[in-house]
Amino acid sequence: GPFSCIAEYVKELDLNGKIDGVLLDLGVSSPQLDDAARGFSFMRDGPLDMRMDPTTGISAAQWLAKADVDDIGWVLKTFGEEKFAYRIARAIVADREATPFLRTLDLANLISRLCPKREKKKHPATRSFQAIRIYINSELEEIHKVLEGALDILALDGRLSVISFHSLEDRIVKRFIRKQEKGREYPAGLPLTDAQMQSGKTMKSQGKAIKPSADEIEKNKRSRSSVLRVAKKIAQPE
After folding, report:
1. 181 close to 201: Cβ distance less than 8 angstroms
2. 106-137 tens-digit pLDDT
C-alpha cells in the first residue's frame, strides 16, 4: 500500500504511539527505475507509463496525449525545476498530433534535441522524467500525508528519519520539521505564558542534514543527491 497509509496500518496493529523510530526512504526503488517496461527510464526504450501501480490512474503517455501546453509546462517547471519547461511543452503538443508519445525514448530524444546538456553526468531529460513521474503518482502529496502519519504514530522521544532524493522532497521534509519545531503561531506582542509559547511544538530537529560521503557516492552513484534529516518527537507542556 502507499506510504500515506502508515498511520492506518499501525493503528490496526494497536501500536499507535508505541513506535520508537520511523525511517522513510523516499527514493524510487532501483529495480523499478531499471525495468524498461515500467517507463521510468530515459536511457532504455519502453512504454511511457511511469505509474507505480499500473492498475490505477493514467499513464504518462495518456496524460501527455491530452494535457495542454500550460499544464505540461507547469508540471515540468514545478516538479522538475526544468528551465526549458515551456519550450519542451510546446514541442510535445506540436509533435504529438503526427506521432503520439508512446515510448520513453521518443520523449527523451525530443528533450535532448531541445535542451543543451547543462549538468555533467545528467541526461537532459532527467528533470522532465522526474517531474512527470512525481505528477502521475501524486508523490509530493503522499509525502505530506506520510510525515503527518509518522508523527502521529511515534512514541515520545521517538525519531523520524527521512531520506530524500531531490530538492522538492527535501524542502517538504525540512519545512515540516521546522513547522513542528515552531509550534502554534500567535500575533506579535501578545502576553504569553511559557506553556502557551511552547504549545503545538511537537518535534525537535536532531542536527543538520546528513549527505553522503565521496566514498559512498563512489560505491553507489544514486546516493549522490540523497539527504537524511532526523527529528525527535517531544512532549507537549502541561
Report:
1. yes
2. 999 999 999 877 666 788 999 999 999 999 99
